[in-house]
Amino acid sequence: MSTAATRTAARPAPRSPAVTKRPVGARVAASPRRESSPSRKQSRLAFAVLTATIAAVMVLGLAALQALLAQTSFKIDDLQSRVAQATQANEELTSRVARLASPARIARVAGNLGMTLPAVGIQVLHVPGLPSPSHSKVVAGVRP
Question: How far apart are the C-alpha atoms of 94 and 96, rounded to whole Å?
Answer without folding.
Answer: 5
